[in-house]
């Protein structure tokens, strides 16, 4: 387990190393002060565009700040960064460049339209990754993971292997039995802990969610459904012994060589890491909103009840399966609203540009590093009515769009027609785990709402403040009371 943890390479590694370098410098108070002074001076001296020749065509932004990198320049925490960028965007527009001394600019894109134009319309040009900084280079085995590999034959091979070998829907569907047993395990743990706290007691649920999602991904990755604690705890051994999604048979474009054991571990770790925290964090945010908004929870429960009753399930069959989920538009809308309001990452991974290209009348030069602001786009009041509000109804199409008499949850979340939110990114680097993550979220939300009424801790409101760890998590982890009252009891009888 220790080894796997050390080798865990997932898609936030670049971001982590960025924040680590900021934090290190923060410890040195004098450097922080001088940085803050530079920030203020830059704001005051702002002249709209970088000066001189070809640089004049770069997207606008504050003047070059010497000696320090643009990332160190902008702030210290994710919310500071977003606040600063919001301020810059109101001043310079939807595309901003931060000048870096003697190197390519760092470009930030803040709107849906420009994200679509770059990631989809000009997808191939924006699909590269920048060279990894030393720590990420080590962790990603010299960029031999899907998320870190440059856009080219190696990334295509690894991604195709994951998409068709592991995440293919027929394969994912074949895990119905495994999902059920992981769910049962989760429900048992929650019940046991809730019973131990006594009447009115609340329990912390985030770690249980994380463990459940992790178990599912381990099985999907290694094709083994032995779910005892020992197997999970002994994951390092499992990784060595099992065929790890056929990775050992791949021949790399680099001279046809096989992957090394370390590279195989890196790729398995990428899958487990990329899928666990993101999905578990989103699940916690969704359940937190259902605790806060009992009316939404009840409406969802009614939808689930209707589908279950119509399919005449009873007793031990009372697990919502994938086929049932297809009949639950409100459930889909709740999950989409969770991903809009609380995307686990507020930025996609950094993209790099393979050739000079024009965007919004500005040149984005070859090798520029481009960041897309997922969090900002989800809060854009030009696109979303009352964006702070948790309102799943916004994803239900109007009654005139009823399909087969049912209201559908409408959104092209992959962004192939247009982009409204992009919690999974968009275009050629879009998250390959999108389908699996949506399925797991819908499956767990539906089954957990059917099993319990989720209520808040006595005397405490749910606090939706955020904090950046690997993903953007709840600053105060969700504590909930799990009840079986009134309407829930009647349904279960
Ligand atoms: C709620 C759950 C998830 C969210 C919100 C999410 C989000 C993202 C985002 C924003 C990216 C970066 C896209 C870009 O750079 O443009 C990404 C990449 C990636 N994700 Fe996910 N992800 C989730 C779950 C998963 C799962 C379950 C898996 C695997 C089973 C996975 C595997 C990956 C991989 C391998 C990449 C790199 C793709 C590439 O660079 O070509 N993710 N994800």
What's the gist of this structure?
This protein is 48% helix and 9% strand.
Describe the fold and architecture.
The protein is α+β, with helices and mostly antiparallel strands and 493 residues long. The chain has a domain at 174-344 and 383-422 and 431-492: Cytochrome p450. 48% of the residues lie in helices and 9% in strands. The chain has 20 helices and eleven strands. The strands form four sheets. A four-stranded mixed sheet has the order 1-2-7-4. It has a three-stranded antiparallel sheet with strand order 3-11-8. Strands 5-6 form a two-stranded antiparallel sheet. A hairpin with a 2-residue loop joins strand 5 and strand 6 (362-364). Residues 1-56, 236-243 and 399-406 have low confidence and may be disordered. The site of protoporphyrin IX containing FE has 24 residues, from helix 14 and helix 19. Pfam families: p450. Heme binds at residue 431. One of its GO terms (biological process) is secondary metabolite biosynthetic process.
Quaternary structure of the protein:
single chain
Name the CATH class of the domain at 174-344 and 383-422 and 431-492: Mainly Alpha
Q: Please state roughly what percent of the residues sit in beta strands, choosing from under 5%, 5-15%, 15-25%, 25-35%, 35-45% or over 45%.
A: 5-15%
Summarize the amount of helix as a percent range: 40-55%
Stretches with pLDDT under 50, minimum 5 residues: 1-56, 236-243, 399-406
Described by strand count, sense and barrel closure, the largest sheet is: 4 strands, mixed
Gyration radius, rounded: 24 Å
Strand order in space, largest sheet: 1-2-7-4
User: Number of DSSP helices?
Assistant: 20
Tell me, briefly, the overall form.
globular
Q: How many strands?
A: 11
- The CATH architecture classification of the domain at 174-344 and 383-422 and 431-492 is Orthogonal Bundle
Average residue pLDDT: 80
Please state the structural category.
alpha+beta
The small molecules bound here are: protoporphyrin IX containing FE
What is the terminal separation in angstroms? Answer: 43 Å
CATH topology of the domain at 174-344 and 383-422 and 431-492: Cytochrome p450
Cofactor: heme
Biased composition (Basic and acidic residues): 27-43
Membrane topology: Single-pass membrane protein
Subcellular location: Membrane
């Amino acid at each position: 387990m220790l080894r796997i943890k050390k080798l865990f390479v997932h898609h936030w590694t670049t971001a982590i190393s960025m924040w680590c370098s900021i934090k290190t410098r923060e410890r040195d108070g004098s450097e922080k002060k001088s940085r803050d002074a530079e920030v203020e001076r830059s704001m005051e001296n702002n002249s709209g565009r970088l000066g001189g020749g070809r640089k004049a065509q770069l997207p606008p932004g504050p003047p070059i700040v010497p000696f320090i990198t643009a990332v160190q320049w902008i702030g210290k925490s994710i919310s500071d960064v977003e606040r600063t960028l919001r301020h810059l965007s109101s001043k310079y527009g939807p595309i901003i460049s931060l000048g870096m001394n003697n190197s390519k600019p760092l470009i930030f894109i803040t709107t849906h339209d420009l994200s679509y134009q770059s990631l989809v319309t000009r997808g191939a040009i924006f699909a590269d990754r920048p060279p990894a900084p030393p720590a990420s280079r080590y962790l990603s085995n010299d960029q031999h993971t899907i998320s870190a590999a440059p856009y080219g034959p190696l990334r295509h091979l690894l991604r195709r292997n994951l998409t068709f070998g592991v995440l293919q829907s027929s394969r994912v569907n074949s895990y119905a039995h495994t999902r059920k047993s992981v769910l049962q395990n989760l429900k048992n743990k929650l019940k046991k802990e809730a019973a131990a706290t006594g009447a009115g007691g609340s329990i912390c649920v985030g770690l249980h969610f994380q463990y459940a999602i992790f178990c599912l991904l381990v099985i999907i990755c290694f094709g083994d459904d032995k779910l005892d604690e020992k197997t999970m705890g002994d994951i390092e051994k499992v990784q060595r012994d099992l065929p790890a999604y056929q990775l050992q048979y791949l021949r790399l474009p680099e001279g046809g060589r096989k992957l090394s054991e370390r590279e195989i571990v890196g790729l398995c770790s990428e899958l487990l890491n990329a899928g666990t925290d993101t999905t578990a964090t989103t699940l916690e945010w969704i359940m937190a909103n259902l605790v806060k908004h009992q009316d939404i929870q009840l409406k969802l429960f009614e939808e689930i009840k209707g589908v279950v009753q119509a399919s005449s399930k009873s007793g031990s069959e009372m697990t919502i399966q994938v086929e049932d989920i297809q009949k639950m538009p409100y459930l889909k809308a709740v999950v989409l609203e969770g991903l809009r309001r609380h995307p686990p990452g507020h930025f996609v991974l950094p993209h790099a540009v393979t050739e000079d290209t024009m965007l919004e009348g500005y040149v984005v030069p070859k090798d520029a590093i481009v960041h897309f602001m997922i969090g900002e786009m989800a809060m854009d009041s030009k696109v979303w009515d009352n964006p702070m509000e948790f309102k799943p109804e916004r994803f239900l199409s109007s009654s005139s769009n009823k399909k087969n008499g049912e209201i559908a949850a409408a959104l092209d979340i992959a962004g192939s027609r247009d982009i409204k939110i992009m919690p999974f990114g968009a275009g050629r680097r879009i998250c390959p785990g999108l389908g699996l993550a949506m399925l797991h979220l819908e499956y767990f939300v539906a089954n957990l709402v059917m099993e319990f009424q989720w209520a808040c801790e006595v005397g405490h409101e749910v606090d939706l403040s955020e904090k950046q760890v690997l993903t953007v998590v709840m600053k105060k982890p969700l504590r909930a009371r799990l009840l079986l009252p009134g309407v829930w009891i009647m349904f279960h009888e």
